[in-house]
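Hey, resending since the last one bounced:
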Amino acid sequence: MNDEDFNTIFSALSEVLRQKEMHWVLDQVNEQIRLGKTESKEISPDEDYRQSSLLDVGARPRAIRGRARKKEEFLVTTEYTPKERLLLLIDAIEQAVVNTNRMVQVTLEFTYEEFNIDEISFYSEEDRKPKTFRAGEFEANARQIMYLKDLLEKLRGQINAN
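The structure tokens again:
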């Protein structure tokens, strides 16, 4: 797979999220991409001097030969590669769909076993409309969720094979 393939798959998965009205997942991934990734970079003061001395006639004199100067570590922000962007999106889909559904399923099982409650409703802060989950619904969805999880794992494996 190459960068063009990664971008194509990213676009296709993004479109699926839009169609399923899961814009918030895509928004969070795009925000993370916009912020970039933080990496640690070691810079030797001598290397910094050598680079600047080529441009700056008044640069400070070089360190005494044979005396090693300690490298300094700095945090820098860099852009995600197309491969990394795609992996971020896959991780977000897995968290939003697979892991969240599993949490709801376990919660429903617990509330039913402990309190004989077989449904839970969540209310959106935006429109105050309830989203109700019932214990029996998740048995049918469990196969689909596991299938999605398997597909995401296979896709991740193909991406990481490069």
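The CA atoms of residues 82 and 132 lie 37 Å apart.

Sorry for the duplicate.
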